[in-house]
């Protein structure tokens, strides 16, 4: 089964950058007390915002980027993550995944599933993969988060 990993160190401004990307104007107005987005964005980028514990959105992004880099044509289906320890600024972490299940979706599997009409393309050729995911501290191997992600990998020849 396929495995992959990536190492990363998050800086004090990683939270701010992620929140700017996800929250845009609204967040910038509230995070820096400046309602003018370009000015607020510059303030946030040049000042550490928040505590030394980083946001779980960074962990999800790291896992998501690792999966996407290894399966660029895949579609995210579902996922769960259990956070066991905080992600700390400056600590090197390693995200990894291992494919634990591959299910070929063909016409026979369609007959055994109740499929929402909007999701029917997912079951019309292709593969559903379940990935065991985790993020650990490099220094001591302590697991920060673990979970499972399900992706669908289309078989474009059979769609």
Largest sheet: 5 strands, antiparallel
Report mean pLDDT, rounded to a whole number. 78
Low-confidence stretches: 109-115
- Tally the helices: 4
The computed structural class is: alpha+beta
How would you sum up the global shape?
globular
Supply Rg.
19 Å
Q: Which range does the strand content fall in?
A: 25-35%
Order of helices and strands: EHHEHEEEHEE
Kindly describe this structure.
The protein is globular, with a radius of gyration of 19 Å. Residues 109-115 have low confidence and may be disordered. The two termini are 25 Å apart. It is α+β, with helices and mostly antiparallel strands. The longest helix has 18 residues, at 14-31. It is built from four helices and seven strands. A hairpin with a 5-residue loop joins strand 6 (127-137) and strand 7 (143-153).
Describe the secondary-structure layout:
Elements: E1 3-9, H1 14-31, H2 37-45, E2 53-54, H3 56-70, E3 75-83, E4 87-88, E5 92-104, H4 107-111, E6 127-137, E7 143-153
Antiparallel strand pairs: 1-5, 2-4, 3-7, 5-6, 6-7
Helix pairs in contact: 1-2
Short structural summary:
With 159 residues, this protein is of the alpha+beta class. The chain has helices spanning 14-31, 37-45, 56-70, 107-111, and strands spanning 3-9, 53-54, 75-83, 87-88, 92-104, 127-137, 143-153. Helix 1 packs antiparallel against helix 2.
Give keywords:
single chain, 159 residues, alpha+beta, five-stranded antiparallel β-sheet, two-stranded antiparallel ribbon, 4 helices, 7 strands, 30% helix, 35% strand, globular
């Amino acid at each position: 089964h396929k495995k992959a990993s990536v190492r990363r160190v998050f800086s004090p401004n990683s939270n701010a950058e992620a929140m700017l990307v996800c929250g845009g104007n609204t967040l910038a107005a509230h995070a820096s007390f400046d309602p003018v987005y370009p000015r607020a964005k510059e303030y946030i980028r040049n000042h550490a915002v928040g505590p030394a514990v980083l946001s779980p959105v960074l962990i999800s992004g790291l896992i998501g980027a690792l999966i996407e880099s290894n399966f660029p044509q895949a579609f995210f289906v579902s996922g769960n993550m259990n956070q066991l320890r905080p992600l700390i600024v400056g600590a090197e972490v390693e995200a990894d995944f291992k494919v634990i299940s591959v299910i070929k979706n063909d016409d026979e599997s369609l007959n055994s599933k109740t499929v929402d009409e909007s999701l029917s393309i997912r079951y019309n050729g292709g593969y559903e993969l379940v990935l065991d995911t985790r993020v650990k501290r490099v220094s001591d191997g302590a697991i920060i988060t673990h979970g499972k992600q399900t992706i669908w990998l289309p078989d474009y020849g059979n769609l």
